[in-house]
Amino acid sequence: MIVSIASALGSLGAVVYARQSVRAAVRAAVAAERSAVSGEGAATLEAGRRHAELTPRFKVSAARANPGVDGLTPGRGRGPMSLAGLIH
Hints:
The chain has a domain at 14-54. Helices cover 60% and strands 0% of the residues. It contains one helix and no strands. It starts with a helix and ends in a 34-residue tail after the last helix.
């Protein structure tokens, strides 16, 4: 009789332990899923940060250098500049 009671308690303990193991496995799976989702978000943020750091940003503006002058002429007033006038 004592052996059967001990065997029944051992079986009951094994069942309780198995159920707790299953619950722990489910909790671990849920935590792993959350971690994967947050890891994807963190990876996306990190990629954006690296892209922003490595992409140069230049502020470009354009303005007329000589307001009131319609064309580019050399100082001697002989028309547009060319290399022919520089070579003698």
